[in-house]
Amino acid sequence: MNFEKPSRRNTDRSKVSRSRSPRTSRLNSTPLFFKGTGSIKNPSETPTRSTPQHSEKEDYGPEYKALEWESRQLIDLEWYDCEEGANTMKNEDDFAYREGVAESRREKKVKLGSLKKLERMQDNDKWEINRMVSSGTIKVHAKDAYDEQDEEHRVVLMVHNIKPPFLDGSIVFTTQLETVQVVKEPNSDIAMLARKGSAVVRIVRERNERSKMRDKFWDISGTALGSMLGVQKKIEEDFSKYDDEGNLDYKADSQYAKSMGNFEAVSDFARSKSVKEQREYLPIFSVRESLMNIIRENRIVIIVGETGSGKTTQLTQYLYEEGYTSYGIIGCTQPRRVAAVSVAKRVSEEIGCKLGDKVGYAIRFEDCTCDQTIIKYMTDGVLLRESLNESDLDQYSAIIMDEAHERSLHTDVLFGILKKVVLRRRDLRLIITSATMNSQKFSEFFGNSPVFTIPGRTFPVDIIFSKTPIEDYVDAAVKKALEIHLQQPPGDILIFMTGQEDIMATCVLLNERITELGPNIPKIRVLPIYSQLPSENQARIFQKSDLRKCVVATNIAETSLTVDGVRYVIDTGFCKLKVFNPKIGMDALQITPISQANANQRSGRAGRTGPGSCCRLYTDTIYREDLLENNIPEIQRTNLANVVLLLKSLNIGNLLEFQFMDPPPQENILNSMYQLWILGALDDLGELTELGKKMVEFPLDPPLSKMLLEAERYKCSSDILTIVSMLSVPSVFYRPRDRESEADASREKFFVPESDHLTLLNVFTQWKNNGFRSDWATNNFVHIKALRKVREVRAQLSDIMKSLNIPEISCGNNWDVIRKVIASGYFHNSAKMKSIGEYVNMRTGIPCILHPSSALFSLGYAPDYIVYHELTMTTREYMQYVTAVDPYWLAELGPMFFSTKENFQEIERKRQKEAKNRIIEELVASKNKEENKGQEDEVKGSGQIVMAGREPTPRRTPRIHPSL
DNA sequence: GAGCACTGC
C-alpha cells in the first residue's frame, strides 16, 4: 500500500448517519465496487480507472452511477488534501484553484453524504466479495484483481527479462518464431490433407457421441472381448524384486527378460536345427571373413544390413570369436529396451551361458551384467550415461551402434562423442549399422569410413501407388482392406494409421461393412494396436487365427514390433509427430505426411515371411516430390536442455562447435542454455555450476532435478523425491470409460486444495501406508503399474541422492515448504490469475487454463499465482499439475524474471507521482464539467459517465510541487 | 468439464 489512508476519514465515520435508505442498503449487499458484469472493482482507485462499465446502469441506473463516481472523487480529494495538499497549495497562484476544489467538495459532501459511508464499509464489502467469489457467484477479472492488489495488501510482481551475459544479445525463448519445418512443401496436396484430417473419423465420432454408444466405439478392444479370446489376465504379483524387508530392489536380475518371452514364436526351423546350424544359415555368415577383415583394418565401419540378416545377434559373437574381448568388452546399443533384452537373451542361448553371465544387458533400472560379462547389450541412453563417468569408455574394445538410422536423440549425441573417443583411443572399434538410404551420409560423417553391405533376406514387395490423390485416408484404407480381403489370396493385412481415434474408427467401419456384405462373406479379425492399448490386448495380434487378420496400427508396428504373417500393407502416408511450436512455447502432436524412409520401412513389413504387396494411398508423384527423404532427426525438433547439460559436463566448451550429424538449430541450443541459466545450472559465462554438475547425475528434466537438489536446503528431500517420481510416469489416475464419475469421486479424495503436486504426494503416501497393496490401488482408481514404476524411479533417484550425500528428510506436513521447492524448479512456468480457472503466463502472456482434473479446478477460489508442470495443447491450452505459490517466492527464486515492488522503489515513486498528477487533473476537469450543465445533462441522458478529464482543460493547469 | 505418435535415462 503506497497511498496511506488519511486518518481523518476514520474520525468522520462517527458523524455519518447509520440509517440506510433502500438504495444504500442494496448497495451494501452488493458492494459499490461490484459491477453488474460480475467483476470486482476497487473503490479507492483513481477516477480514470473507475469508468463504470456500460452494463452497470442496468443494475443501478445512471443517477446512482454519477453519485458513485462523484463520491469517489470526494474521497480522493480528502485524501489529497490531508496528505499532500498543504505543501502543494502554498503557491498563491493556486489559491483560486484550491478554493474551487474546496467549494466543490463542500457541495458534494452535502449531496453525497449518505454514499460516503460506503467507503467505510470497504472491509465488510471485501469480505462479502470474497464469499461471493468463493461461492462462484461472481467472477474476478484479472485487471480488477490486479488493481485491488495494487492498492491493498497483495504483492505486485514486476516482470522483467534479464538475459545471461554469455548469450550476449542472442535470440532466446519467445523470439524464435519459426516452427521447425516437418513437411517438405507445406502447400502440397498431402500436407493439406494432413491438416484436413479424415471426415469419416469425424462422422464416426459424432455418431457415437450422439447415440451414446461410446462403449461400442471405445471398448471394442475391451476386456469382454479379450477374455472371450482367452487372454489370460496376469494377476499374480511379482515379489522377486523385493527383499526381506519389503524394499524395492529395482536392479533385480532379468526382470524384463522374465516378463518377456511369452509371445515368442518358436518356428519349426528353430526346433529342428542346432544352434550352430541356425547361425550358419543367416546371411551374415556368408560374408563373415570379409567383414572381419574390414573391421580389422578400419577403426570405424558402417554396416548396412536388412532386418533378418543376423547382424544384431552375430556381429558381437564374431568379434568375441576374433579375440576382441581380450582387452575389453563388446558393447552393442539398441534404441529400445525390449530389443536390448531379447537380443541379449538370444545371444546368451547361442553362446550357451546364463543371461547376465558372459552375455548381459543394461537398461534403466536393470543392470543384468557381472564381472564376467564380455558382450553387453544396452539402450543407447545407458551408454550415454556411462560416457559421463568414463569419458573414454575404457572398458569397451568395440562398440556397435545398432539401428543407428533411427536417429534417436541419444544416438545423435553418441555419434559426436564416439567420433572423438575413437580419435583418442586407437584400440577402439566403432561399428555403426544403418539402413541403405543414409549409409553414405554416415560414412561421410565418420571421415569416409568404409560401408559394408550384408545381403538381406527379405522377400520382394510389390508397391502399388494410388492413381489419384485420395480425399479421406480412413475411408480409402477401409475400402482397400475390403478389396484385398475379397480378392486376394490368404495373408494378413497391416494398416498404418496415425492414432488411436483413427484406428478405432477404421476398426468400426471395417467390421460394419463386412457385416453389411452378408453372411456369405468370409469373416475377418480386425485387431487394433497402439502403445496405449493394455498389453493383454496388444498380445492378441500375435495369436494364431484361422481367420484373416487385419491389424490396424500406429507407427508402433513400423519399428517396435513385428507382426509375422503380414502379406499386405496399406500405408495411409501419415503419422502423428510431436512438433515444438516456439510461438506458444509448447509441443503439439500433429498429423504430418511421413518421409520416404518411413514409407519404405512400412512397405518392408509386407515381405517378412514371403512376397507381399504394399498399397500406398498416395500417388507416385507425391512420394517423389512431396515427401521428405528422411525424418527430421529428433535432435532438431526437441528441447535440448538435457543434452546441453550433458555435453557441458563432458567439458565441451562451445556447444555450437560440437560435431552433430545434423546440428540442431542454433536457437534451440541457446534457448536450452538460457533455460539452464535460469535454473542456475550454468553461470553467467555459460559454464556449469556446482548445482549443474549435480543435476547431470539425475535422469530427469532439469527443472525436476533442480527441485530435488533444492529440496535439500528446505529439508523436504524425501517428499520432493516422491513428487518428482510421480511426475516421471504417466498419470497414475485410472478413469475407465464407463465409470467416470466414480473414478472422479475417488480422485477427489486425494485432493490437496492448493496443489496437484501435493495431491500426487498424498496418493503415494497413502499407497505406502496401505502396504503398497495392489488391491488398494484398484479400489481407489489408481494404476498399480504406474505406481510400481514410481517406486522404481524413486529407488533409482534415491540411490543417486545417496551417492551425492543428500540425506532423505521428510518435512512432515509442512506443505508450504514443498510448494516453495516446486516453485524453485518451475517459476518459469508461472501464471497469474485472470479469472477463476483462467490464467496467463507471467512472462509470455499466453493464456492457459486449469485442466478439469486439477485439484484447483473446482476449488471455488483461485490462487493469484501458480506454477504448472507443463502445458498441453489439446482442445485448449491446459496446464497440467498446478500448484499455488506465493509471489514472494517467485521473486526470490526467479529474480531474472520477477521482483516485488519493494525492489523497485525508484519506479514506484515515479508511479505514485504520476498517479497523483492524474488525480489532480481529474479533479480540475471534473470541476470544469460541473460548470458545464449542458454536458452533464447529456451525460445523464445517455446513462453514461464521460470522464471529463479526458478533455483539455486550458483554464487551469495545476502546478505540482517539485517534491511530488 | 477432459483424450493419449513412438522412444529413452
TrEMBL record:
Enzyme Commission (EC) number: 3.6.4.13
Xref: PANTHER family: ATP-DEPENDENT RNA HELICASE, PRE-MRNA-SPLICING FACTOR ATP-DEPENDENT RNA HELICASE PRP16
Segments traversing the membrane: none
Root EC class: hydrolase
Species of origin: Stentor coeruleus
The family this protein is said to belong to: Belongs to the DEAD box helicase family. DEAH subfamily. PRP16 sub-subfamily.
Biased composition (Polar residues): 39-53
Any Pfam family matching the protein: OB_NTP_bind
Xref: SUPFAM superfamilies: P-loop containing nucleoside triphosphate hydrolases
GO MF annotations, alphabetized: ATP binding; hydrolase activity; RNA binding; RNA helicase activity
Cell compartments where the protein resides: Nucleus
Catalysed reaction, written as an equation: ATP + H2O = ADP + phosphate + H(+)
Primary residence: nucleus
Segments forming domain Helicase C-terminal: 469-651
A GO cellular component entry from the record: nucleus
Feature: compositional bias, Basic and acidic residues: 1-15, 927-940
Sequence segments annotated as region (Disordered): 1-61, 923-964
Gene Ontology biological process terms in this record: mRNA splicing, via spliceosome
Full protein name: RNA helicase
Segments forming domain Helicase ATP-binding: 292-455
Assigned keywords, A-Z: ATP-binding, Helicase, Hydrolase, mRNA processing, mRNA splicing, Nucleotide-binding, Nucleus
